[in-house]
Amino acid sequence: MTPWPPVLPAKLHPIVRAFLDTPGAVAETLATFGSPVHLVFPQVYAENLARLRSPLRRSLPGHRICYAHKVNQSRAFVRTAERAGVAIDVASPHELSSASSAGFDRARIEVTGPKGEAFLRDLVARRVTINVDNLWELGRIAELADEHAEIPVLLRVSGFDPGQVSRFGVPLAYVEQAFDLLSAQRGRIDFRGFAFHLDSGDLGERVRAIDACLRLIERAYDRGLAPSVLDIGGGFRQVFTADAERFDAYVLALRESLLGRGEPMSWGSNTFGYHVAGGAVHGTPVFHKYANTVSADRMLTDLLGAPLERHGGRTVAQVVGDNLLEMWLEPGKALVDHAGVTLATVEFVKEISDGSVLVHVDLSRDAVTPADQEVMVDPILPPRAGAGPVGVYFAGRLCLERDLITNHKVWLPARPEPGDPVVFPNTAAYHMDLSAATASMHPVLPKLAVTQASDGFRVVRDADYEPDFPGESSWPRDRAPSPVRSIEGF
Ligand SMILES: Cc1ncc(COP(=O)(O)O)c(C=O)c1O
Ligand 1 centre and the CA of 67: distance in Å? Predict the structure, then answer.
């Protein structure tokens, strides 16, 4: 029997769970720093990093992790990555400056994404590794570089599967032109290797991309070049749900509701990417990634162990290792999975003409939702005695019909009250920063770093976080830390 009500329980890291369970922790944080606010947990980030590193350390002597900064603007994460000794992938002048000021030197910085003239000039002057997106960039680097500058360059390639188009990278058919230029400009450009990035979680797609890059490496050697890097990008998945069965049951109930059976479960005319025809629901929903249960390290282990047909069934790790290649990764969301939550406050609850209940909170959709997605994990509210589960939609603070934080119905154990704190779980990956705007002159949400120590939790402004914290003695003497709260025992 399908359990009632349909719920979407979030998977929480034990540190985050312990923080939320500490009596008074959330209330005290909101009272001290205001509402709404983002919290990041650098210790969870460090643990994710260690977990992703372990299959690499087991099977691949040459590897490099470049943290994809774009996933979150948090300085605490960047400082944690720096301290852990990994590299960083930056995609704008601002991310580059954030990485430099957090301690990354040029040898540990890789610049990805499309770049304009001014940025390229700066990168050539700094001699950081440029992951080239297109032939124009490659040509400009050759023109801007001094004769013996040897600017380190990776070539991003795309279009591995027929019919799969990408706006990024050099299509395979154009790589020969890149070889011409790289061969002619050897003094100015140090060609380090090939790169790709796939959003898909599909193992086969990644293996095909790796195989295509291995072919390109062979062709490059034929042209007298000596690439040694194979950069497989990011795209390693997050696990949002704590209960895959309940997730499936929710989706089933939602599909039924789209067919007019049972209680309505969607705001307005939202169908979440499904289409309804002939008495059935078709298509893939926009929220399919929230159903994933395969962890990033599992994905990576499977990839490293995948056999390559063209190489006699030897695994990806064996072929990369035997050919003395270095594998680079650019994980973003996998490193910040479960390492952030967003706290908000209920302003009021209202019922509208069709009987729907709206819970208005003091933030807007863009603070907790990546642009085009529907986040399928339930917000968490404090337990409250009530008449039983109530189905609600969460509404944002903007004066726009579309500022609904959940377009799908969320069942809460009881109707919330004004002033109740609300926790939006697992918001660190793109949810916090990707589309955040200062609409209606509301400021972008502040960010705090939360660490667990033996004597409780400490909360500090993200900009002030240092990896040695806690240990207040580690603060530079000439700099007073802004509010640092020890929140055990509130
Ligand atoms: C080139 C590149 N590398 C890495 C990433 C990080 O991807 P993810 O957060 O999926 O790991 C992105 C994300 O857009 C990207 O464009």
Answer: 9
